[in-house]
């Protein structure tokens, strides 16, 4: 009971501290803007730990953060093997193939107004569908190893990327295109010097949406059959053994990988589209 | 009108590619069946055919060409096979039958809608809190954004098993996963929407001596609706995916996810494809319904679209 009360006190104290920081004079500075969410996240972890211990929640329902951290530190080799199987081979492989194919397709489609008109609604429609459902079919076609996971990822990221790139290639206005024409620029010159740079914010939007989709596709596809390694495999078998600390360790890996992947794309965007109003 | 024809052309193109793809995908199965029937096939045994390229097989066995579209358990079913299966399992079966897709669709749909309702409500409440409290904004919002980059769906099997171990099963675990998936898009979209009124409008209300409460109901809430609906459309699609994935790990007996799983266990490809299309139609219908609601609501509010 003492621990539960302590958890409540920690929560109130941290909230009071955050309220002081957020409404104080320093609220606009970067340090405070990072500190406040960090305090909030840390408080959540402490409260979680104290509540689990205080209420005696069994391990099969919710393990405490310290238990998860211990398991994480103790099974780095397994986690690394799962990570390289699911993320590096499945998700990343599929991501590169899918986004690359969508990009090339978008440039081809963009040459024909008729095709573009037809493809955009269809692409938007497909992008909203539960494409994860193709996983059992693709696992049947490409076998249990990472190739089938990469195939699921390709299908999942293709349409969001295609729609965004096609929309981005439309971003230049008539004046800019006319200017390129007065320079006697060829199709490829105006593509590389004007239209692709103008499309970059859209392309990166597609790339950023696709990072999450890629991880989801690679993990969920493993629920339908996988070799005895991989994050989805580990999650579903550990759940079966009620080893929830292992499941949480995998979720931590997925969260870190997802944020890092997204962060990488966002960072790249910042470097390449420094001229865009949203980045200034 | 021009767009309509263009879309029609693209759809026709996709169906055409699908039919063509059936030929190399199914040719080996067709030839194996033909050999068992005692027909002349080149090369003669299944072992030799395994290493042969699919296109070469097609060229050597022209007679089998037309059969690839009517195989019993094809690797890739032809579009009309899927359409026939869809028709048979929706219209011709009784709605209460275990083989009716309408029955399975209803199971998934209830979980989706329940979860979507919970997730949307919670998301809107949190967004209102974030907009009105600076502390919440600074501490919760970064986590809400980061959480969108995490494959939350990896949690699905665990949520189901944990809830099962404390005695909750059936509809609710799936609904919770669906709620979780629709929650964050709604929070992010709604916060953006509630912040969308510009300074001029907020200042105008201030000159009217309007309270925060008035400002919320008369300005912030109405102007957030377009943003809300945009994220609702994302949210409901995510909810459906959540409900389907939530059916996978427990080996559920009912629902579209269960149909997918059963189909993949027993090699019933036509069943997988028809469940997939049922899910796609359901998703499209839900998104379209939200679109109609949006249009009606915005028209009543006098927003020019």
Tell me about this structure.
The complex is a heterodimer of chains A (280) and B (305). By secondary structure, chain A is an all-alpha fold. Chain A contains eleven helices and no strands. Chain A is flat, with a radius of gyration of 24 Å. The model of chain A has no long low-confidence stretch (mean pLDDT 87). With 305 residues, chain B is mainly α. Chain B has twelve helices and no strands. The longest helix of chain B is centred in the last third of the chain and has 36 residues, at 212-247. Chain B is elongated, with a radius of gyration of 26 Å. At the A-B interface, helix 1, helix 2, helix 5, helix 6 and helix 9 of A face helix 1, helix 6, helix 7, helix 10 and helix 11 of B. Chain A: This is Putative aliphatic sulfonates transport permease protein SsuC. Chain A: It holds the Pfam family BPD_transp_1.
Task: Summarize the model shown.
The complex is a heterodimer of chains A (280) and B (305). Chain A has 280 residues and is mainly α.
Most residues in contact, chain pair and counts:
A-B, 64 and 58 residues
Helix tally of chain A equals 11
Kindly state the number of beta strands of chain A: 0
Task: Please name the fourth-level CATH homologous superfamily of the largest domain in chain A.
Answer: MetI-like
Biggest β-sheet description of chain B:
none
Structural class of chain A: mainly alpha
Shape of chain A: flat
Rg over C-alpha atoms of chain A, rounded to the nearest angstrom: 24 Å
Mean pLDDT across every amino acid position of chain B: 83
Percent strand of chain B? under 5%
Radius of gyration of chain B: 26 Å
- Write down the CATH class of the largest domain in chain A: Mainly Alpha
What is the ordering of alpha helices and beta strands of chain B? HHHHHHHHHHHH
Tell me the distance between the termini of chain A: 51 Å
Q: How many strands of chain B?
A: 0
What share of residues of chain A is helical?
over 70%
H/E element order of chain A:
HHHHHHHHHHH
- The CATH architecture category of the largest domain in chain B equals Orthogonal Bundle
């Amino acid at each position: 009971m003492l621990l539960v009360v302590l958890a409540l006190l920690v929560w109130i104290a941290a909230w009071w501290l955050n309220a002081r920081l957020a409404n104080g004079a320093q609220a606009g500075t970067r340090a405070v803007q990072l500190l406040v969410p960090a305090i909030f996240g840390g408080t959540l972890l402490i409260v979680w730990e104290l509540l689990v211990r205080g209420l005696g929640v069994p391990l099969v329902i919710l393990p405490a953060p310290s238990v998860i951290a211990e398991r994480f530190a103790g099974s780095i080799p397994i986690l690394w093997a799962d990570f390289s199987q699911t993320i590096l081979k499945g998700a990343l492989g599929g991501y590169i193939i899918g986004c690359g194919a969508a990009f090339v397709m978008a440039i081809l489609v963009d040459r024909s107004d008729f095709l573009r008109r037809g493809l955009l609604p269809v692409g938007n429609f497909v992008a909203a569908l539960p494409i994860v459902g193709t996983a059992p079919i693709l696992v049947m076609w490409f076998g249990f190893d990472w190739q089938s996971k990469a195939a699921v990822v390709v299908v999942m990221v293709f349409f969001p990327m295609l729609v965004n790139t096609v929309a981005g290639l439309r971003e230049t206005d008539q004046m800019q295109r006319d200017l390129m024409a007065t320079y006697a620029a060829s199709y490829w010159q105006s593509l590389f010097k004007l239209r692709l740079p103008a499309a970059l914010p859209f392309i990166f939007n597609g790339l950023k949406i696709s990072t999450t989709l890629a991880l989801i596709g690679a993990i969920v596809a493993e629920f339908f059959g996988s070799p005895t390694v991989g994050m989805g495999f580990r999650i579903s078998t550990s759940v079966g053994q009620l080893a929830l600390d292992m499941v949480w360790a995998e979720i931590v890996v997925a969260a870190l990988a997802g944020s890092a992947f997204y962060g990488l794309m966002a960072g790249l965007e910042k470097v390449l589209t420094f001229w865009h109003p949203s980045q200034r | 009108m021009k767009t309509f024809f263009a879309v029609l052309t693209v759809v026709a193109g996709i169906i055409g590619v699908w039919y063509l793809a059936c030929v190399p995908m199914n040719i080996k199965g067709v030839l194996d069946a033909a050999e068992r029937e005692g027909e002349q096939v080149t090369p003669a045994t299944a072992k030799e055919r395994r290493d042969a390229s699919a296109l070469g097989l097609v060229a050597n066995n022209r007679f089998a060409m037309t059969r690839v579209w009517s195989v019993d358990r094809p690797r890739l079913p032809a579009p009309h096979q899927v359409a026939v299966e869809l028709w048979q399992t929706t219209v011709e079966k009784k709605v209460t039958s275990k083989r009716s897709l309408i029955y399975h669709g209803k199971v998934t749909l209830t979980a989706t809608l329940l979860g979507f309702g919970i997730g949307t409500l919670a998301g809107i409440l949190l967004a209102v809190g974030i907009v009105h409290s600076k502390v919440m904004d600074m501490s919760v919002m970064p986590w809400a954004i980061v959480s969108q980059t995490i494959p939350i769906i990896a949690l699905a099997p665990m949520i189901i098993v944990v809830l099962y171990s404390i005695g909750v099963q059936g509809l609710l675990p799936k609904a919770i996963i669906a709620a979780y998936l629709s929650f964050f898009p709604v929070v992010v979209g709604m916060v953006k929407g509630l912040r969308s009124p510009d300074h001029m409008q907020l200042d105008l209300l201030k000159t009217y001596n309007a309270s925060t409460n008035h400002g919320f109901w008369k300005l912030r809430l109405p102007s957030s609706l377009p943003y809300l609906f945009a994220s609702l459309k994302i949210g409901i699609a995510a909810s459906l995916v959540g409900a389907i994935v939530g059916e996978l790990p427990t080996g559920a007996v009912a629902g579209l996810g269960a149909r997918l799983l059963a189909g993949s266990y027993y090699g019933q490809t036509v069943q997988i494809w028809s469940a997939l299309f049922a899910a796609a139609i359901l998703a499209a219908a839900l998104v379209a319904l939200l679109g109609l609601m949006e249009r009606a609501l915005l028209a009543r509010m006098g927003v020019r679209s």
